[in-house]
Specification:
Blueprint: E1 5-7, H1 17-21, E2 26-28, E3 34-36, H2 44-53, E4 59-61
Antiparallel strand pairs: 1-4, 2-3
The chain binds iron/sulfur cluster.
């Protein structure tokens, strides 16, 4: 099963880090917040880098 990252829109400050680290996974939605649009758009390690790099810990693996 593919692990899917989840962005909490109430926590995201729209810094753009995850979008630039994993452009195939995250994009900004119409509200200007990051969201996952394709969990298979990067390797798990690349997504983990985005999770670790988020300055406000807005991204987590969905369970
Ligand atoms: S790295 Fe975190 S704060 Fe920055 S856009 Fe992504 S989810 Fe939002």
């Amino acid at each position: 099963m593919v692990k899917k990252p989840f962005v909490d829109p109430d926590v995201c400050i729209s810094c753009g880090l995850c979008v630039s680290v994993c452009p195939g996974v995250f994009h900004f939605n119409s509200a200007g917040k990051s969201e996952c649009y394709d969990p298979e758009g990067a390797t798990e390690a690349e997504i983990q880098s985005a999770i670790d790099g988020c300055p406000v810990q807005a991204i987590s693996w969905a369970s």
